[in-house]
Design a protein that fits this description.
heterodimer, A: 701 residues, mainly alpha, 7-stranded parallel beta sheet, 32 helices, 4% strand, elongated, B: 241 residues, 2 domains, 3-stranded antiparallel beta sheet, two-stranded antiparallel sheet, 10 helices, 5 strands, 48% helix, globular
Chain lengths: 701, 241
């Protein structure tokens, strides 16, 4: 069939559906060095000529793809971030023209099993965001147009089903496909007739796949085999006839530019990766801005980040900005952006040693409850499991992700208790121990001279890991029976000894630890508290400029101990804590102080059976905290309202607390001693759904 | 007794063609066909060589072949298509197509779609209006002529188009063809003598021979003031037919 006949036929018909193969990708071999390992070298050589991509995969992931002999199967075995390492694509006309055909409405749907993302990248460069169907695949007639079906991870029967049921939705062009993979030949043969025609563009003079030669390209099926083109030359010809070539977006208005220059300029128009510096002043201003302004900013930024992600960048900006603003605005406002950010970040998250995706998941788990919260933690866990930050990762300190992983697991175990919590906490502990052993081993190894000898980064890393994990032991100890708690605390005490060389950190951690131990060891309470108080005094002596903070910590530790006791023993500790908060107030009056003080008084009032003046004092401090930092005392005010029978007062306080991003996590609210009396009440669930959009009402139903 | 081809190679070119012509339509009988084909093949191989040399030498003399004017703006889409096909042939064509990638099937569309190849890909060689290689399209045109006349074309004619292709040396040169009015070698399917009959085609060969004897410019045969120095130079490069 002649080109002009084909174009003429297509011009008369509706928008075209494409099956887009790897021949359209512009893949090139970026690495040309030969691996040292003989087995890998042999595999690389074996595939070098006939399948350069497969050769590249074997070069990078020999063990991961052992036994797999075609590129698609190998890519399926890899994670998205690993695929990026081998799928090097250069800008080509195929993708540019396809993006333009989608833009002008001449291309309706593109079905592709490619993993390289070149086409999506090209649409992003044209600032287009057509729907990408990657997990759910609507029928072709129900799909938005234009749209792109990313079928790389889908089983072959999905493509067969879509094509079989949607063959009549438009003319079809198959391009860049060999027909050897993904059951494509079988799939095409399964359709009796392509009402608007099927045109398979071969590669120059190459023959159609043997199994199709006589079966598919018949007038009965209305299918044609097109020769004399490769993907680039066909797509440029098609665009010139159906639209405008070169695409007008690439040509500055009123100027004449050679198409070759457009190709070169295309890459420079690609959306940028994340750079937070220019927008940080605006983000800081938005911390105190109204929700409408925040919403508008976030929607715009989410669109930019979506483009950035589609353009092939690691789009972590949305997650970081949403995380920052979530500390100042309501969960209801921020949650959709956090979820969108999670979707954008997840594919590349295993390359992020800082675990930003995990922090996002933890935030979303805070806004969720039960199974939904568990799912967020599980996603973060799965992401950590894919990370490879071993010695060859290039970071100054390898295994840097282990701290974040352990912290996430510990949080999961503590805040979403279940039968698996103990096992999850054990994994957290084992993760830190694994890191400690690895850093110790590397610290002992000879260091290159250029690193110098003054600091030992591994030692510092170990100490930071221990210091960060001790509070997790303390938190866990409150959730388990006393015998198990004592075991955990004994281990924490053992770990603490590693911090002895840093006196300040050691004294602070030890003081809090001893109080926690005293909670579960009443028989040794006096000695433990005596020792703890010595540590607090040491801190006061060592850091006179941090006296207020030390006194607040001291008061908080006493409050924790009081809460673990009852009767006179408790009241005595509440009184001590109250005095310490008073001393701290003399030095520095701040929102944190009044909020914590208010919490102490709520606990004490509950213990005493609630004398009115105590509730009044608690309310007064909460109001002062709220005055100093909007929303900071509102949660306590809600608790006081609940405890004093003022049911009407609960909602406005919780909503104010949420409005300023100061509300505590959902699971805490549902288990809070003051509020849990309402946890099954529909009005309370509706209230919390209004704040967290957590589906509590639906869950109850 | 020496065969036709042996005698032809020994220099009896015109005589052999005359003998073959004398057989009329019988030249196609099995008794003669194989021997005749050997002569046709040898003649046309020489003719192809002559045509190639003429194009080369004429370009060297600064001859300007007549052809479609180059577009003011390059046809980028076409050039991209050609370039990618040439790259493909360079990668996959092997040694066989190194010297002449245009004969590779990956570039068959150039002939099929009657593409005028932009000058930058021709390396100074003449364009489509001066030369078109043999191919399926040309064969189809000849078949059509045979169908219309009801008899096969002379062996020499089919041999020419099967081996040499379509040739036209029309153009201009200050001495060889000052204003383009000197008739030059021109062999196209449109100009075939349809009444030539089904014999060997000695007349056709004679006409070609005559054209080569005039360095590709038979028009000088009946004109005064021929540029002898240039014509001698061209003649010296050609093989006898």
């Amino acid at each position: 069939m002649k080109t002009n006949q084909l174009i003429g036929a297509l011009r008369e018909r509706s928008s075209i559906n494409f099956i887009w193969g790897s021949g359209c990708s512009g893949l090139y071999r970026s690495s040309i060095t030969m691996p040292g390992d003989p087995a890998i070298r042999e595999a690389v050589k074996k595939y070098d000529d006939k399948d350069p991509l497969l050769s590249q995969i074997k070069r990078n992931f020999f063990n991961r793809t052992a036994g797999l002999e075609d590129a698609h199967s190998c890519l399926l075995a890899l994670h998205p971030h690993e695929r990026k390492r081998v799928l090097d694509c250069q800008t080509n006309w195929s993708n540019i023209c396809m993006a333009e055909l989608l833009r002008i409405g001449r291309a309706a749907r593109v079905l592709t099993t490619n993993f390289d993302g070149s086409l999506v990248r090209a649409t992003a460069t044209f600032r287009m965001t057509p729907p990408l169907y990657q997990r759910d695949f609507p029928e072709l007639r129900d799909a938005a147009t234009p749209c792109i079906y990313l079928l790389g991870d889908a089983p072959p029967e999905i493509l067969a089903g879509l094509l079989g049921r949607g063959a009549a939705t438009g003319p079809w062009i198959v391009i860049g496909c060999s027909g050897k993979h993904f059951g494509l030949s079988r799939t095409l043969l399964s359709v009796d007739r392509y009402e608007q025609g099927l045109y398979w563009v071969g590669h120059f003079q190459e023959e159609p796949p043997a199994e199709l030669r006589d079966g598919l390209f018949t007038s009965q099926r209305n299918a044609q085999w097109i020769t004399g083109f490769d993907a680039d030359s066909f797509m440029t010809s098609l665009l010139r006839e159906l639209g405008e070539f070169p695409p007008p977006q690439l040509v500055p208005e009123g100027k004449k530019v050679k198409p070759a220059a457009c190709l070169a300029a295309f890459e420079s128009r690609r959306p940028e990766g994340t750079d937070l510096r220019p927008i940080m002043p605006e983000v800081q201003r938005l911390e105190t801005a109204g929700s409408e302004e925040v919403q508008a900013f976030m929607e715009k930024y989410a669109r930019e980040q979506d483009l950035s992600f589609r353009a092939g960048h690691f789009a972590l900006g949305l997650g970081l900005v949403a995380g920052l603003l979530a500390a100042h605005h309501s969960p209801r406002l921020m949650k959709p952006f956090l979820i969108r950010a999670a979707e954008l970040m997840e594919p590349d998250a295993p390359t992020d040693v800082n675990g930003s995706f995990s922090q996002l998941c933890c935030k979303l788990a805070e806004y969720s409850y039960g199974e939904r919260a568990r799912q967020w933690y599980a996603r973060a866990d799965a992401c950590f499991a894919k990370m490879d930050f071993g010695p060859s990762c290039g970071a100054p300190v390898p295994y840097g992700h282990l701290r974040g992983w352990a912290k996430m697991l510990a949080e999961w175990a503590c805040f979403e208790p279940s039968e698996q919590s103990e096992a999850i906490f054990d994994r957290a502990r084992a993760t830190i121990l694994d890191g400690l052993a690895k850093w110790k081993e590397r610290a002992a190894a000879p260091r290159p001279s250029f690193l110098g000898t003054r600091t030992d980064p591994f030692d510092r890393h170990r100490k930071l890991a221990i210091q960060g994990f001790i509070p997790e032991f303390h938190r866990r100890a409150r959730m388990v029976p006393p015998a198990r708690a004592l075991e955990l605390l004994a281990e924490a005490r053992h770990w603490l000894e590693e911090l002895r060389s840093d006196q300040g950190v050691y004294a602070n951690s030890l003081a809090k630890h001893l109080f926690r131990e005293a909670e579960v060891a009443p028989d040794r309470q006096a000695a433990l508290i005596g020792e703890a108080e010595d540590q607090f005094r040491t801190l006061l002596r060592l850091f006179p400029d941090k006296t207020a903070a030390t006194l607040r910590d001291w008061a908080g530790a006493l409050g924790g101990l009081a809460k673990a006791r009852s009767g006179e023993a408790a009241l005595a500790r509440y009184a001590e804590a109250d005095r310490k908060f008073g001393e701290a107030e003399q030095i520095e009056a701040c929102a944190v102080l009044y909020s914590n003080w208010s919490s102490l008084l709520i606990d004490e009032a509950r213990e005493r059976g609630g004398p009115a003046e105590l509730w009044e004092r608690a309310r007064g401090f909460a109001e002062r905290a709220d005055a100093l930092e909007a929303g900071k005392g509102s949660y306590n005010l809600a608790c006081i309202a609940a405890e004093t029978g003022d049911r009407e007062g609960i909602a406005p306080c919780l909503e104010r607390s949420a409005q300023y991003g100061k509300i505590t996590r959902l699971s805490h609210i549902l288990n809070d001693a003051s509020l849990k009396q309402f946890r099954h009440d529909p009005w309370f669930r509706e209230l919390l759904d209004g704040i967290f959009d957590a589906g509590l009402v639906a869950q109850a139903q | 007794m020496a065969t036709w081809i042996e005698r032809y190679q020994a220099g009896e070119c015109a005589g052999i063609w005359a003998e073959m012509q004398a057989l009329g339509g019988d030249i196609r009988t099995p008794a003669h066909r194989q021997a005749a084909d050997a002569v046709v093949r040898e003649t046309m191989d020489r003719a192809r060589g002559n045509v190639e040399r003429l194009f080369e030498e004429l370009l060297g003399l600064g001859y300007r072949f007549q052809g479609a004017p180059e577009p003011a703006e390059p046809d980028y889409v076409l050039e991209l298509r050609i370039q990618h096909a040439l790259d493909y042939v360079a990668r996959h064509g092997g040694r066989r197509y190194k010297a002449n990638p245009w004969s590779h099937p990956a570039l068959a569309w150039v002939e099929d779609e009657e593409i005028e190849v932009p000058a930058r890909f021709r390396g100074g060689k003449p364009g489509r209006s001066s030369y078109r290689p043999p191919g399926a399209r040309l064969n189809g045109a000849l078949d059509e002529i045979e169908r219309q006349t009801g008899s096969p074309l002379p062996l020499a004619v089919r041999g020419w188009f099967g081996t040499v292709g379509t040739v036209s040396l029309a153009g201009t040169h200050p001495r060889l063809n000052p204003d383009g009015s000197i008739p030059a070698l021109r062999v196209t399917p449109e100009e075939i003598d349809r009444a030539a009959g089904d014999a060997a085609g000695a007349e056709f060969v004679a006409a070609i021979r005559h054209a080569f004897a005039w360095g590709g410019f038979p028009g000088w045969a009946d004109r005064a003031g021929a540029p002898e120095r240039e014509l001698d130079w061209l003649r010296s490069k050609l093989l006898p037919l």
